[in-house]
Amino acid sequence: MYHTWMRYFTPSPVHHRLGLVCLGVGMQHGALPTVGPRTLDHHVAVVIGAGGGWFRGADGERLTVTAPALIWLTPGVPHHYGPDPATGWDESFVDFTGPATATYTELGYIEPERPVVPLADTAGARAAVGRIARAARRGNPLLEVETGAAVHELLVALRRARADLAPDGDPVLQALARDAFQPLSVAEHAARHGMTPAELRTAVRRGAGCSPKDYLLGIRLGRAKELLAATELPVAAVARRVGYDDPAYFSRLFTRRVGTAPVRFREQQGRAVPGGWSSRIPDPEHPPTIPGPAT
Known about the structure:
By secondary structure, this protein is of the alpha+beta class.
């Protein structure tokens, strides 16, 4: 026996321009029928929360699926899968498409070459699927936007839940972030980790979806923006604090990547706060109490 619930949607062309649209969602469990062989024209994330089964892709190899796990179904790729008929499995699935799928694939969030991905847990993914399911109520005027936004959340949750990544992220990325403001080349960063530059590039692209240079640049420019907005430090001093000894080079780099010069950014975003900004991240679920006017 098995239980199945599902909904399917047809977003309009304007919703596709949001980047991602949800085409369907389902939750089912038990000794489900096998799926395929078939080929789809869109992506599907199949999250297995309990139980196990098998998957066979275009190469014909039969892979074992053991929960918690993710099955990626990608456009144009034949697939065939199903749970163990004796035990069944617990499954959630989300069908989606849109131009942003190409970028998510480039960044490593979608992995067509790895159709079965072990997960550490499925809590985050199931929460995103739950948001899609709640938005799927009949007559919801925000259906396409709510479900599309939840697909973005789902891809992030699945990336974070991968069993081959530490809960706090890749140690190499953590170390790069820690040393990001030191004036070190990519080769020098690699040497610190006992790696070749090529090995470091592979590790960073696998963990962050970009090159070490772009990863470090994002951290440096983010900090530079904070210093420009929150302090009156000269641009040259900001440049040195984020790892650039040449302020002219920093200004050119900042302008090219941000789209505006450092001085102009400060004019637009400056928010001088006596004593500086707080380093404590607020809890949005428990905001501070603001006292009302005295009576």
